[in-house]
């Protein structure tokens, strides 16, 4: 401002003095008046000065002209008198000279310097312009004296006087007119300037409607200034209006924005605090205004809790925008801490000078919490990723570069110093056999056909082998047109899983014991072989091999021996087949061979198939050596040829099975071909199995009893026997379904049913006062049930029956498998109070041993020994021996299968205390005997 004022003043720079400044302060009219007076004075003085100078110059020239004129005259007039020393003439001449107006005085000096004559003009006033003319009077070299004449310019002075007087008169009139004009102009200018000033003052006071009235101020500079001023005022008015609108808008924004806003001046004192800032700091704007901002905005590092400086000081220092550091907390007036984020920016005036700082911030506590939690999660994820052994890859499709993390580099066997490989190298590293599939899956994902890229492939493990890697990925970035730009994914070593899968697959399709294909694989191969034979017009044979009495080996020698036998059998059978044929183990002692490429003619194909079947059968004839013990085994072989009409693979298998069954029925160790009758029988067996599943739930099982009598023929006990009243077949004997029930496990539920019904019958007998005991057959499968004893006790308890009234019949063969477990279970049963009976005694292997070891109550002499009585001496001897043995061990004895009086008589004679057989009563429905015993 100072400089602009200086430029506008009259007295620039150093010449400006206090007086000048004072003059500057005078009103324009006064300045004009003074200016006019000074100019007029200067003009008059200059005019006078010039006139005086002109007169002086004229006077000098006049005097010089007089001297030139006078000198010869004086010489001529006075030289002679002087030579003649004629003083009178000299005096006369001198007087004549003085008589002239322009000579004030004449002095004549003799040659000795004495004054001869001196005459002065009377009372002549000294004039400003005069000169003394000295004229020597000489003739040749002779000096006669000197004349001194004092000249003046009186004539000129008079003329000059008139001239000055008239000039002054003209000048005075001119100056007066000029002063009058100047003052008038000054008033005119002053009035217009006053209007300008008033308008400017109005403007300064904020009256933006004030105008100088430029059009009325004329066309000169003041008029132009007025118009410029009016334009400017109008523009300022508009600008101010806009500013007001803008300010109110800004104010509204600042009041309503979600961010806190603090403004300070250059001294870092608060000049503004918006409502959010008030809420966040706890200060009202009125309280905060003028205070140091550091008092209002206290911030600290969230991690250390230590106070930190506001960025405002740095903004003032640098003039740049400064962001808040991360982890910044705002400490409100009441001590509440909130995470804030944002920045401080400089405020500048129109000239660009820094006049303050505005700091905008917002509460990011929630975002901070989320970010912290996100970082935690990311850390956890990284840890989990590390723990999981997953590697990460990130593929930029724009340049096909693939970033790899440390684990991914390890898995791909990439040098640790490299962080990225190309996509081509990634593919190159895959096993050649896996590349195409992996690439296809990748392309499918990029094309959007599958949501995720998933592939498994092998890569070199760096030790000469291959490791299986599983990779999953997904497009994580797309270009504007939606095409994939980036794919991110994981890598994992799935070698173990692959090995496990291979193992599972092996287990799924191969028999673990023999290494042969299992039923599933057999079916698949059979399906293929059948289809192929059909296509090429050949025949094939399905050969079913079932070992005869293998169960006996298993039961008598244990599973370990049985397993070894099966392995050797598998090896022998395999050795008799071609590589193109398949040998499978269905389970247990069942093997199946698929023989292919047989001639199309049925008889010829049959002959070939029979030869193979025979070869297989005979392969087993040589004894097997297991642990130094020789074992002999035979096999029943069934053959079905294919293709056979539309018979499926399953049907072919059941055909071969039926043929094998026929071989069994024909005496075992033989080869049989399938025929439809066999198939019928096999189908029926299958149907029976299905029906048996429903027998219990449909209430088709029935309790039959067969009495046991003492030596006097009195019924003392009865054997409970199961019957199945089949809906279409009628009554089915146990021999037809018990083995099936044992195979399928249904015997467990059926056995429980039998025990429950037998106990219920005992209850009724008790209620009727009939002391008849009941024995129930228990199968090996039932006995192996871990909770069998508990279940039996529960049934006894539910029916309220004394355990001692119940006898459980077990077979010798049960004792040969899992003997320890069975013995323990029998003791547990014994402890419940039930009695234990050995069925079919004498047909087993180690009768003597268990008679000593087991808590037995009774033995039943097998029907096979009773059959031959009374004539067969061996049977008599055996029966007598068994009876003697039982007596020695204190065991009850029941002879079963007694059909004739002779048998009964003989048994009585041998001392058999109890008998059972058709002679005393066939198995009948329990109700039949109950009625009989009750005498109804
Ligand atoms: N686990 C279970 N097994 C049971 C159950 N019910 C029966 N069975 C088993 O079935 C086998 C056959 O029983 P069944 O056809 O009832 O034959 C019994 C009698 O009918 C038959 N018998 C009896 N007396 C004579 C006779 O004078 N001559 C002759 N030919 N047969 C006769 O013997 C069978 C009873 O024998 P046993 O059990 O050895 O005392 C049967 O052997 C049981 O194994 C059951 O509920 N559970």
Automatic annotation (TrEMBL):
Start and end residues of each PAC domain: 324-376, 453-506
GO cellular component, one term: membrane
Stated name of the protein: Putative signaling protein
Every EAL domain range: 685-936
Sequence intervals crossing the membrane: 32-55, 159-183
Listed PROSITE patterns: EAL, GGDEF, HAMP, PAC, PAS
Reaction catalysed by this enzyme: 3',3'-c-di-GMP + H2O = 5'-phosphoguanylyl(3'->5')guanosine + H(+)
GO biological process: one example: signal transduction
Keyword vocabulary terms for this entry: Membrane, Transmembrane, Transmembrane helix
GO molecular function: cyclic-guanylate-specific phosphodiesterase activity
Domain GGDEF residue range list: 538-676
Location of the PAS domain: 246-291
Domain HAMP: 187-241
InterPro entries: Biofilm_reg_signaling, EAL_dom, EAL_sf, GGDEF_dom, HAMP_dom, Nucleotide_cyclase, PAC, PAS
Gene3D superfamilies: 3.30.70.270, 6.10.340.10, EAL domain (3.20.20.450), PAS domain (3.30.450.20)
Organism: Tepidimonas taiwanensis
Highest taxon, organism lineage: Bacteria
CDD domains registered for this protein in UniProt: EAL, GGDEF, HAMP, PAS
UniProt-listed SMART domains: EAL (SM00052), GGDEF (SM00267), HAMP (SM00304), PAC (SM00086), PAS (SM00091)
């Amino acid at each position: 401002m100072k400089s602009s004022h200086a430029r506008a003043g009259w007295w620039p720079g150093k010449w400006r003095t206090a007086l000048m400044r004072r003059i500057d302060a005078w009103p324009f009219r006064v300045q004009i008046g003074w200016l006019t007076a000074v100019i007029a004075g200067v003009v008059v003085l200059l005019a006078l000065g010039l006139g005086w100078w002109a007169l002086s110059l004229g006077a000098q020239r006049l005097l010089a002209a007089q001297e030139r004129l006078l000198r010869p005259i004086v010489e001529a007039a006075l030289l002679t008198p002087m030579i003649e020393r004629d003083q009178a003439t000299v005096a006369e001449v001198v007087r004549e000279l003085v008589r002239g107006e322009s000579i004030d005085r004449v002095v004549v000096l003799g040659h000795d310097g004495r004054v001869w004559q001196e005459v002065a003009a009377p009372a002549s006033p000294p004039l400003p312009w005069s000169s003394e003319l000295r004229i020597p009077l000489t003739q040749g070299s002779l000096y006669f004296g000197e004349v001194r004449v004092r000249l003046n310019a009186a004539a000129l002075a008079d003329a000059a006087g008139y001239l000055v007087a008239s000039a002054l008169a003209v000048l005075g009139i001119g100056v007066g007119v000029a002063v009058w004009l100047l003052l008038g102009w000054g008033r005119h200018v002053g009035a217009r300037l006053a209007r300008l000033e008033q308008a400017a003052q109005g403007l300064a006071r904020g009256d933006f409607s004030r105008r100088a009235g430029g059009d009325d101020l004329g066309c000169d500079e003041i008029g132009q200034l007025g118009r410029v001023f009016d334009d400017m005022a109008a523009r300022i008015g508009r600008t101010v209006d806009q500013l007001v609108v803008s300010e109110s808008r800004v104010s509204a924004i600042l009041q309503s924005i979600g961010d806190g806003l603090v403004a300070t001046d250059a001294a870092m004192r608060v000049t503004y605090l918006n409502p959010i800032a008030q809420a966040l700091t706890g200060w009202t704007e009125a309280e905060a205004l003028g205070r140091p901002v550091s008092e209002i905005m206290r911030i600290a590092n969230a991690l250390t809790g230590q106070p930190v400086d506001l960025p405002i000081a740095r903004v003032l220092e640098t003039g740049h925008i400064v962001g808040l550091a991360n982890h910044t907390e705002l400490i409100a007036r009441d001590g509440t801490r909130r995470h804030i984020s944002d920045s401080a920016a400089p405020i500048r005036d129109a000239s660009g000078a820094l006049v303050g700082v505005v700091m905008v911030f917002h509460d990011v506590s929630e975002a901070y919490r989320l970010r912290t939690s996100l970082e935690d999660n990311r850390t956890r994820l990284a840890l989990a990723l590390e723990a999981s052994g997953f590697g990460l890859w990130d593929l930029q499709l724009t340049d096909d570069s693939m970033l790899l993390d440390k684990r991914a580099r390890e898995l791909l066997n990439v040098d640790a110093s490299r962080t990225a490989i190309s996509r081509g190298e990634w593919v190159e590293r895959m096993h050649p056999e896996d590349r195409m599939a992996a690439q296809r899956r990748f392309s499918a994902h990029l094309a959007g056909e599958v949501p995720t890229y998933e592939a498994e492939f092998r890569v070199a493990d760096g030790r000469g082998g291959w490791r299986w890697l599983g990779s999953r990925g997904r497009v994580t970035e797309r270009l504007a047109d939606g095409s994939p730009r980036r794919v991110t994914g994981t890598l994992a070593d799935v070698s173990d899983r692959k090995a496990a899968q291979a193992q599972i697959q092996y287990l799924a399709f191969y028999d673990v014991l023999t290494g042969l294909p299992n039923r599933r694989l057999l079916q698949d191969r059979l399906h293929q072989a059948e289809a192929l034979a059909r296509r090429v017009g050949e025949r094939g044979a399905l050969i079913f091999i079932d070992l005869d009495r293998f169960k006996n080996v298993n039961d008598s020698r244990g599973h370990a021996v049985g397993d070894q036998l099966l392995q050797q059998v598998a090896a022998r059978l395999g050795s008799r087949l071609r590589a193109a044929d398949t040998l499978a183990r269905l389970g247990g002692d069942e093997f199946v061979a698929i023989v292919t490429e047989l001639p199309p003619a049925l008889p010829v194909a049959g002959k070939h198939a029979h030869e193979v079947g025979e070869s297989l059968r005979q392969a087993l004839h040589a004894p097997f050596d297991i642990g130094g013990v020789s074992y002999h085994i035979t096999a029943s072989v069934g053959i079905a040829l294919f293709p056979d009409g539309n018979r499926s693979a399953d049907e072919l298998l059941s055909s071969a099975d039926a043929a094998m069954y026929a071989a069994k029925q024909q005496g075992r160790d033989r080869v049989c071909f399938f025929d439809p009758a066999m198939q019928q029988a096999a189908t029926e067996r299958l149907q029976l199995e299905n029906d048996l599943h429903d027998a219990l739930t449909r209430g088709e099982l029935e309790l039959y009893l067969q009495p046991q009598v003492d030596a006097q023929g009195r019924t003392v006990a009865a054997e409970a026997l199961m019957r199945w009243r089949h809906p279409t077949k009628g009554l089915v004997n146990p021999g037809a379904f018990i083995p099936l029930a044992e195979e399928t496990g249904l015997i467990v539920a059926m056995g429980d049913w039998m025990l429950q019904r037998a106990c219920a019958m005992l209850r009724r007998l008790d209620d009727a006062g009939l002391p008849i005991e009941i024995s129930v057959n228990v199968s090996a499968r039932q006995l192996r049930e871990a909770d069998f004893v508990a279940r039996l006790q529960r049934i006894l308890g539910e029916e309220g029956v004394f355990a001692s009234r119940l006898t459980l019949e077990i077979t010798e063969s049960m004792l040969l498998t899992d003997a320890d477990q069975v013995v323990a279970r029998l003791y547990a049963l014994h402890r419940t109070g039930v009695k234990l009976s050995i069925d079919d005694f004498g047909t087993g292997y180690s009768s003597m041993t268990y008679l000593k070891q087991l808590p037995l109550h009774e033995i039943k002499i097998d029907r096979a020994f009773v059959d031959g009585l009374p004539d067969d001496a061996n049977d008599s001897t055996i029966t007598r021996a068994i009876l003697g043995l039982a007596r020695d061990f204190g065991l009850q004895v029941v002879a079963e299968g007694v059909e004739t009086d002779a048998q009964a008589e003989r048994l009585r004679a041998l001392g058999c205390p109890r008998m059972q057989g058709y002679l005393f009563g066939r198995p009948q429905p329990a109700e039949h005997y109950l009625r009989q015993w009750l005498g109804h």
